[in-house]
Each structure stands twice: as structure tokens, then as C-alpha cells.
Amino acid sequence: MDASAGTGRSNERYREVLRRESNRMNRLMTELLEYGKPPSDKLDRGRLDTVVAEAVDVCTAPAQSADIRLVTSLKAADEQVQMDYDRLLRVFVNLIENAIQYSATADKVFIATTVSAANSGRRWVECRVEDAGPGFKQSDIPLIFEPFFSQRRNGTGLGLAIVHRIVDEHRGEIEAGNRSQGGAIMTVRLPVSESV
């Protein structure tokens, strides 16, 4: 038996472990830097539907690979919000990717925008991302936006913490819950920017 062949396989296995761990550490460092990033000092006016539509485009290939169908209903087209476009894009890509990851093969992920009124009487645009996965444990809902809280095996626990921080920077609200028919629902609300 050739001893060098066994050593080569062993070395390849260790290289693969090192590669995976290196990628995991790189992802963690990137997310830590994103979490600590100061808010943008200049927000532009833009349409939420435009950001959400791009997030759907970004997530279409992973959805197709997982045999998940993305179903959209974007109905806030005329309303504008104050936004850092790239930061908000990250919010919706993260939420849609999470919904895809927790969905079973052949499931649908629903992404919808609407205009709503809050208790204050101010108008808001709202985006809901719904999946048909297992949903949230009730005991986890108060914790899911906390840094480093994760139920995913290899998750960093920073994705939803970053999402919460970005929504907060836009003077918005984010809420997590479960659909009555099963699955999770994430709702983001942002105040409509009144024309100047």
C-alpha cells in the first residue's frame, strides 16, 4: 500500500476543513464590520418597490436552485421613503434568503409591499416576506434580533441583528411572527417621505 496516497487524502481533508473554517471566519468578520458600521449621514428619496424588486432579482437564482418560487405583489409604487439604497437592499436580500433557506422544496415565498397607516396617523410603506417553513418558536421571537442569537447550525447570529439596525437607522420598524397557516412572516415598515 502506498503510504503517500493515505497522507494525501488526509491532507486534503484537513485543507477542506481549514477552507471551511476560513470562509466561516471571513463571513463572521464581514458581518461584524457591517454590524458596527455607522449609519449613513445622507439618505436619498426612493421607491421601496424598486429596492424590493432588485432584492427579488438577486435571490431568484438561489430560489430556483432550491426549487422555491418567489411570488411578488408590489403595490407601494408611488410612495417614496428616505433611504440608503444599498443598506435597504441588504435588508430585503437577507429576509428573502432566510425565507428560502427555511422553505421546503416546491414551496413558495411571498414578498408583498403595501401602503398602511400607523397609530400616529402617519403613512408607512410596508414589506412582508412570508414563507411556509417551520416558523419561529414563540420563545425565540423576542430574541431573534439580538446579536449572536441563531437557531441555524452554522449561522453567525448577526444577519437579523444587522437587518434590525438598518431598519432602525431608517426610522422604521421590523416585526417577526408566524403565519396562521404555518411559516414565518417578517414585516418591515418605513415612514413615507413627504414631498418637499
Descriptive labels:
five-stranded mixed β-sheet; Heat Shock Protein 90; alpha+beta; 23% strand; single chain; 196 residues
Please provide a written account of the structure:
By secondary structure, this protein is an alpha+beta fold. It has two domains: 1-36; 43-191, Histidine kinase-like ATPase, C-terminal domain (Heat Shock Protein 90), CATH 3.30.565.10. Helices cover 41% and strands 23% of the residues. The chain has helices at residues 3-36, 48-65, 85-101, 159-169, and strands at residues 44-47, 69-74, 80-83, 108-117, 123-130, 173-178, 184-191. The strands form two sheets. Strands 2-4-5-7-6 form a five-stranded mixed sheet. A two-stranded antiparallel ribbon has the order 1-3. Helix 2 (48-65) runs parallel beside helix 3 and helix 3 (85-101) packs antiparallel against helix 4 (159-169). The longest helix is centred in the first third of the chain and has 34 residues, at 3-36. The chain is globular. The protein starts with a helix and ends in a 5-residue tail after the last strand.
Describe the secondary-structure layout:
Layout: H1 3-36, E1 44-47, H2 48-65, E2 69-74, E3 80-83, H3 85-101, E4 108-117, E5 123-130, H4 159-169, E6 173-178, E7 184-191
Parallel strand pairs: 2-4
Antiparallel strand pairs: 1-3, 4-5, 5-7, 6-7
Helix pairs in contact: 2-3, 3-4
